[in-house]
Specification:
single chain; alpha+beta; eight-stranded mixed beta sheet; five-stranded antiparallel beta sheet; 6 helices; 13 strands
């Protein structure tokens, strides 16, 4: 294990999340390091957080590059959740709700969730989430939740790079860009985020009806009722209307041929130049 780290304490009001936080200056990827920790000793690393000032090989969903210069919150959380395998998608839901809520609370911005777990404002991405898991015989061995939040970063440079490597990439923004402030306490943000994530995780693990969580997620969604494109492997596959979010986190769509379909993965974009269809 890389020894160039320090353990940080945040006086968290949690039972297990964040009890051990490894803070690195510069590493390839918090997600890959967290996965290696989980693979080595998950019983000892449940709740461990890997935090980096900078990543030089960060990854987003679909193995896309995640630009992670100094000035952002780049972290991965290791958990061994006590939930059934068929509820695994709810973890992505509670991560997205937590990030969206905390950004809004500390900034008074009105960010929304683009299914499944991108956090956006005015159609610009301010944060993203990636989930990796290890499943063995229908048992969840571990989950690693990677979160990246643009705080004080060079948005122009990031957007130029993204447009050069991915024509479907969504424009990025940051807290600094939206609020015109030059400093933010990312550790305060991290503390509140970890506490909120544990709150929702306990709700899920304690067999609480997920209906309220899903309803809250839907209120934060920016796509319901809108006409969207669905992409698979960067190829536009079909268009549809986003009708609902199912209790397991699936996106319910009404295709142009009136067929109702549910998807659990894939990239989507809102059909900006067309009138939103409601029925």
């Amino acid at each position: 294990m890389d020894k160039d780290y320090k353990i940080i304490e945040l006086q968290l009001q949690t039972h297990f999340i964040g009890k051990r936080i490894y803070h690195y200056k510069r590493i390839p990827s918090t997600q890959q390091l967290a996965i290696s920790f989980a693979e080595t000793n998950i019983s000892n690393e449940n709740g461990t957080v890997i935090l980096a000032d900078e990543q030089y090989d960060g990854k987003g969903r679909g193995n896309k590059k995640w630009i992670s210069p100094k000035g952002g919150l780049w972290m991965s959380l290791i958990i061994k959740p006590k939930i059934e395998l068929n509820k695994i998608n709810i973890l992505s839901i509670i991560a997205a709700i937590s990030v969206c809520e905390i950004i809004n609370e500390i900034s008074n911005l009105e960010t929304r969730i683009k299914w499944p777990n991108d956090i956006i404002i005015d159609n610009k991405k301010i944060a993203g989430i990636i989930i990796d898991s290890s499943i063995n015989k229908n048992n969840i061995e571990y989950i690693v939740i990677g979160i990246g939040i643009n705080i004080v970063v060079d948005i122009l440079k990031i957007n130029l790079f993204l447009s050069s490597i991915d024509r479907l990439s969504q424009k990025a923004t940051s807290l600094q860009n939206e609020l015109k402030e030059i400093s933010f306490d990312r550790f305060k943000l991290l503390k509140r985020l970890l506490e909120r994530m544990e709150y929702y995780l306990f709700l899920v693990q304690n067999k609480t009806d997920n209906t309220k969580i899903i309803e809250h997620y839907k209120k934060l969604s920016n796509i319901l009722g809108k006409s969207i494109y669905v992409y698979r492997k960067d190829v536009k596959e079909f268009s549809a209307i986003a009708k609902d979010i199912d209790s397991d986190g699936g996106l319910i769509l009404k295709r142009e041929n009136k067929i109702i379909e549910k998807i659990y993965c894939g990239e989507i974009s809102i059909r900006e130049k067309e009138k939103e269809k409601r029925n």
